[in-house]
Write a structure and sequence with these properties.
Blueprint: E1 2-4, H1 12-21, E2 25-26, H2 34-43, H3 50-64, E3 69-73, H4 81-94, E4 100-104, H5 111-122, H6 130-154, H7 163-177, H8 181-197, E5 215-220, H9 222-226, H10 234-240, E6 244-247, H11 251-263, H12 270-277, H13 289-302, E7 306-312, H14 316-332, E8 336-341, H15 347-368
Parallel strand pairs: 1-2, 1-3, 3-4, 5-6, 5-7, 7-8
Helix pairs in contact: 1-6, 2-3, 3-4, 6-7, 6-8, 7-8, 12-13, 13-14
The protein binds iron/sulfur cluster.
Length: about 375
């Protein structure tokens, strides 16, 4: 079996570690590029949302490289996510591809189902390696998220433009090569020190050193928030403009909430976000619609200077959230901007809108002081 999966930010490092430790051959598609996007858009329905198109591009590139099994996560809810796997399967079969597709459905209080699906992929004889594989995967996943949090806090204070990104990428390579949780910890610790050394500030990570540096929260559809190629690298661009970015979604948090706590029916933090969203949106609309609203309210309460929502064109949950964001913005006095992106979006267009939004926020922050 030569297994592949779609890219989502830098998390392929953790997923690859999981399957490789379990003795499965992994064929990693190349990082998404314009070619990936073209392959995906050319072979998907025009009205399909961007994550589906980029996913198709990833799979086609991986199948070209010799992959024969695709693993993807399923989904539930009123949006199209639940149909994704079937649509993608039909598109690829229609193109004459020869492959097997494995869909990992959310456990919904039945961890045994998820375990059975994993056993089907790796075979019963390798199940004993699962604990070690999960430990290594979890250490890589949490290290990547910690590194991202530090990057977002420190990038506005780097001595030379691009220093933090360079250190981040080098550290990711070390995390990728690490063969044990201990090595992962060491790589993450070195990364943190290296990042601090290329910054103007010696201060505490996570605290805004410059009271004039604008703080902006990123909310929206999970794939668009986490995949820099899909969102035109907004986090990096904002950081290089001197903005401290706060991302509302991290995969390790999502895994704790939706896999571990959900499987064992433990109280979920996302319920707090639901409570915050309730005055504006009181029922599930699919995707991350409710979380987008709840996180925006939370950011307004925390005193952030603005919120940017990133959404794929035609994404139903985020269209609902977009309308409500205007009301939250008026009620709670937090500026909000929505970036709706598809295969026609250009880096320059996104950059222009970001600059205008950041200028507006910086000016009003200065005036308030
Ligand atoms: S949440 Fe939006 S982008 Fe994601 S599958 Fe649903 S409609 Fe598509």
């Amino acid at each position: 079996m030569k297994l592949t999966f779609a890219h989502l930010g830098d998390y392929h490092i953790a997923v690859k570690a999981l399957f490789e430790t379990l003795g499965v051959d992994v064929v990693l598609p190349p990082p998404p590029t314009k070619r990936t996007m073209s392959l995906g858009s050319l072979n998907s329905p025009e009205f399909a949302c961007l994550p589906l198109k980029i996913g198709i591009g990833n799979y086609l590139e991986a199948l070209e490289m010799g992959a024969d099994t695709i693993v993807m996560v399923g989904g539930i809810g009123p949006c199209r996510l639940g149909l994704y796997c079937e649509v993608q399967r039909q598109i690829l079969e229609g193109l004459g591809c020869d492959f097997k597709m494995i869909v990992l459905e959310p456990p919904q209080g039945r961890p045994d189902r998820l375990l059975r699906q994993v056993r089907d992929i790796i075979g019963a004889q390798r199940i004993s390696r699962l604990f070690d594989a999960l430990r290594l995967t979890w250490s890589k996943l949490t290290a990547i998220d910690r590194l991202n949090k530090i990057t977002l806090c420190l990038r506005p204070f780097e001595k030379r433009k691009g220093d933090i990104t360079r250190v981040y990428e080098a550290s990711l390579r070390r995390i990728d090569e690490a063969a044990s949780p201990k090595e992962v910890q060491a790589a993450a610790g070195n990364a943190r020190d290296a990042m601090k050394s290329v910054c103007k500030t010696e201060g505490r990570i996570g605290k805004a050193e410059d009271p004039l540096a604008p703080r902006i929260g990123i909310v929206g559809e999970v794939f668009m928030v986490l995949e820099p190629f899909a969102n035109c690298e907004i986090e990096k661009r904002l950081g290089e403009m001197g903005v401290i970015v706060d991302r509302s979604i991290y995969l390790s948090d999502w895994a704790v909430e939706h896999v571990i706590k959900d499987a064992f029916r433990i109280f979920r933090k996302s319920k707090l976000l639901n409570e915050m969203a309730k005055p504006y949106l009181c029922h599930f609309v699919g995707g991350h619609g409710v979380e987008t609203i709840g996180s925006t309210v939370a950011y307004a309460n925390e005193g952030l200077d603005g919120v940017i929502q990133v959404a794929p064109f035609t994404c139903m949950p985020e269209i609902i959230a977009q309308d409500i964001l205007a009301k939250i913005s008026r009620d709670l006095g937090i500026p909000a901007m929505t970036l709706v992106l598809d295969e026609h979006s250009s880096d320059t267009g996104v950059l222009t809108r970001l600059e205008a939004f950041v200028d507006m926020i910086a000016m009003s922050k200065c005036r308030r002081r």
